[in-house]
Fold this sequence. Notes:
Layout: E1 25-36, E2 40-47, E3 51-58, E4 64-73, E5 79-88, E6 93-97, E7 100-101, H1 102-105, E8 108-110, E9 114-124, E10 128-149, E11 159-162, E12 167-168, E13 179-185, E14 200-201, E15 207-215
Parallel strand pairs: 10-15
Antiparallel strand pairs: 1-4, 2-3, 3-10, 4-9, 5-8, 5-10, 6-7, 6-9, 10-11, 12-14, 13-15
Amino acid sequence: TIAYSGLATGISITGEANIRAVSDIRVTGIDLDNAENGAVEQYAPKYTKNTITNGIKLPNSNSSISYTIEITNKGDIDQAIYGLSTVSNNNGLHILIDGEEINTKLPLIIPYRTSREITITYTTSTPSNEAINIVNTFDFREVYYITYETNGGSNIQRQIKYQNVDINLTSERPTKTKYVFTGWTDEQNGTQVKYAPGDLYTLNQNKTLYAIYRQGEAT
Length: 219
């Protein structure tokens, strides 16, 4: 509770105040899901726009505790949980997302104007009756799409590019009867090649690339 008084000389604040900054994508909820084999929640979890804080005990080697996390994307473009970093006082702490390893599950795209729940599970290889304090920080990134318009040629699947992560354009070349593919342009009626297959793409924006051909022999 936050109290404000413009006339009185004193102000009283009771309870707990959580200030959460405005963000297109953010954590919007966290709840205890399951605790097994002696696992204990030390205190109620907290969250900010991109972090969750937990206090738990994992006294046995098979102890585990899980939380359901709600992520909401209120923006106008798709975003992704690109990574998850962890600070903990337990060196053996192990984390799964929806039952999978972090590097297997992520990146995870959250479409714009939608919410998604994920389950984070904690186990440890160094069980103890000591409290384990955990701070997880989500790396949220915007998602961009590279779309290939082949102008009558064979289909080329679009590519996904994450914010500030460079990618190579597809090395696949469209085929078209009686034509030879020469490269890509970002102008709908362009005739000058601007991108070759496999070129590095660094822009943080959606892009449609159009195929350019030259006349060739019948195939």
